[in-house]
Specification:
single chain; 389 residues; alpha+beta; 4-stranded antiparallel beta sheet; 13 strands
Length: 389
């Protein structure tokens, strides 16, 4: 998507020239799924698929948003309007929430005039590649840059999580926003979601590449079982806290969890907590395996992650299982698993570069035969976080 096309689309919609263009990437997560809100570790990276925004200032206090993907009406509201948009305009809440919380800050008074914003994504909506976090970080960086706000990138990520939790109503963790805004080219982020300590690690895959496999099944996490999983993990944590001085499941290793698992005494909560603890351990071991250039071990841990998400967390479903299980059988594949919230969305596979075309063809055929429609495949380039371009 080039600058000329974006500026032309802005001008056609708003009848004036756009001032600045921004880009906010989506993310993949190599391993560490549903561990962020459980205080565990994650290993995400920002990708070249994302959301573009063309900004233009206004002289009044109106905000006008238009999506080149939704093709609905222009969503207009006043700067001080903090109500939640409904129905066909719901997508605007990811922008509106960030605007609301940034204006509530001390330096929010600098946001003293309205603006027009044209957005266009090449990141599939509902793909599990974190389009909502990309939107939030796009809005955050636009407001920071255009109104000279004194706020750091990690603080913007936290406001994005607040937007997700409180404005939109999804009890998600910090990983998605952190990965979108803190991404670094050719690196993944090893993040402790309990302490917010992080480290960039080169994503060294030698003659392998990461392929994103989209189920093309739409999922809406806020209306799905996602919040149920958060509540089930919290229930398990509360039971463990009767004997253990912990603030999050991510503080436990497998051995300690095993010794105290009798406290949970609920089959569903036990499975959810077991995934959170074991996935955190897998993330630690997988990161070490990558540092040691043990890609075979990394692949096995990625496969194990999918199994745990299937049996203990129960968020995979027929479409994601078909992609991952078919990928495992292909030549040149190190590992594959679902990523994101689940219930649809996407999976990733680490595939030998010279086998990539055959891989897409073979997995695509099986998926269409079993599911009845096509999956989509994307090659992932690892890029920097949200920025002006």
């Amino acid at each position: 998507m080039n600058k000329e096309e974006l500026l032309k689309a802005y001008q056609e919609k708003f009848g004036e020239k756009g001032q600045d263009i921004f880009f906010s990437p989506g993310r993949i997560n190599v391993i560490g799924e549903h561990t962020d809100y459980n205080g565990g570790h994650v290993f995400p990276a920002a990708i070249s698929l994302g959301i573009y925004g063309v900004y233009g200032p206004r002289k009044d206090n109106k905000v006008a948003l238009y999506s080149g993907n939704v093709h609905g009406p222009v969503v207009e509201f006043d700067l001080d309007d903090e109500t939640v948009e409904k129905d066909d305009c719901f997508w605007a809440n990811y922008f509106k929430g960030m605007l609301t919380y940034l204006r509530q800050r001390k330096d929010g008074a600098k946001i003293n005039h309205g603006f027009n914003l044209y957005v266009k994504a090449n990141l599939p909506s509902g793909s599990g590649l974190s389009s909502s976090a990309a939107i939030e970080m796009l809005m955050g960086i636009i407001l920071k840059e255009e109104f000279d706000l004194d706020i750091g990138r990690i603080a913007l990520a936290k406001l994005g999580q607040k937007t997700e939790n409180e404005f939109v109503g999804l009890n998600s963790g910090i990983m998605d926003q952190f990965a979108c805004i803190m991404g670094k080219k050719d690196s993944a982020i090893f993040l402790d979601c309990n302490t917010m300590e992080y480290e960039y690690k080169p994503l060294k895959l030698d003659d392998y590449e990461i392929i994103i496999m989209s189920t093309n099944k739409q999922h809406t996490l806020a209306s799905s079982a996602y919040n149920d999983r958060v509540a089930e993990c919290h229930g398990a944590l509360e039971k463990l806290q009767t004997k253990l001085k912990i603030k999050a499941l991510g503080e436990l290793d497998d051995h300690t969890f095993d010794e105290y698992s009798y406290l949970i005494n609920d089959e569903t909560e036990l499975k959810r907590a077991r995934h959170a603890v074991s996935e955190n351990g897998r993330t630690l071991r997988a990161t070490k395996a990558m540092e040691d250039n043990d890609l075979a071990k990394l692949g096995r841990l990625i496969n194990a992650s999918h199994i745990s998400l299937h049996y203990d967390y129960e968020v995979t479903g027929r479409e994601l299982d078909t992609l991952a299980e078919t990928a495992w059988k292909q030549p040149g594949v190190l590992g594959a698993r679902m990523i994101g919230g689940g219930f649809g969305g996407s999976a990733i596979a680490i595939v030998k570069k010279d086998q990539a075309d055959a891989f897409k063809k073979n997995v695509g055929k099986v998926y269409r035969d079993r599911i009845g429609y096509d999956a989509s495949f994307y090659d992932a380039e690892i890029v920097d976080g949200t920025k002006k371009i």
